Amino acid sequence: MNWNDVASQLFGTAHDIRADDDFLSGSATFDGRTIAVVGSTNHAPIGYALALRQAQVVLDTMAHHPGRAIFLLIDTQGQLLRRHDELLGINRAMAHLGCCIDLARRRGHRVIGLVYDQALSGGFITSGLIADACDALPEAEIRVMRIPAMARVTKLSEDVLTALSASNPVFAPGVQNYLSMGGVRALWQGDLPAGLRDALAHASTDDRRAIDGRERGGRLLAARVVEQVLAA
């Protein structure tokens, strides 16, 4: 689903979201309240410039509209792999974006991320995974890396990793596996306004991903490790 369809189903004509190349920004009226919208489209690789543009929207929202909810529309193939951006400090720009989102949450802004198409790697880590809730559409694609790339990194064969992915979500791409691991809070099935309404009302401001992963059977040990570290 493209961002225009998502915006139309959520807000009808009550929004001014616009695309500037791969960059999305604007505002929308939802259930009588104004929310800020920022994100990306066209499977955008998140580079130095795009990360800073997204961060600026978050900073402007905090400065001019205290407490306003922020809605992240996520469609990214990950960080931009280009020497120019590496030299400019893409790592610092993406960290800046993540820090801005975290600061907004600490200041009382509800931050909701929706993976409406694709979410990979660093472009996803510094946006949706820092939100109060990272939700997704059922047809979305989420992964850190494909199995062939995972095989090159881990030195395990693709056959071994394919077999592991059948029983362990940690080794498998796909939105259902991220739901099982707790990386995705919920899937928005059909009624998109109901999904956003639920996220705004009920998403926890605490990080429940390890707990959700344990309860859903997709990541059994992370919560126990966290509990042991906190108790030490």
Question: Which helices and strands appear, and what pairs or packs with what?
Answer:
Blueprint: H1 3-11, E1 18-20, E2 23-30, E3 33-40, E4 44-46, H2 48-64, E5 70-79, H3 83-88, H4 90-106, E6 111-120, H5 121-125, E7 133-136, E8 141-143, H6 147-154, H7 158-167, H8 175-181, H9 192-202, H10 209-215, H11 222-231
Parallel strand pairs: 3-5, 4-5, 5-6, 6-7, 6-8
Antiparallel strand pairs: 1-2, 2-3
Gist of the model:
The protein is an alpha/beta fold and 232 residues long. It is 46% helix and 21% strand. Helix 2 (48-64) runs parallel beside helix 4.
What global shape is seen?
A: globular
CATH topology call: 2-enoyl-CoA Hydratase, Chain A, domain 1
What's the CATH class, please?
Alpha Beta
Strand percentage: 15-25%
Secondary structural class: alpha/beta
How is this structure best described in words?
The chain is built from 11 helices and 8 strands. With 232 residues, the chain is of the alpha/beta class. The model has no long low-confidence stretch (mean pLDDT 91).
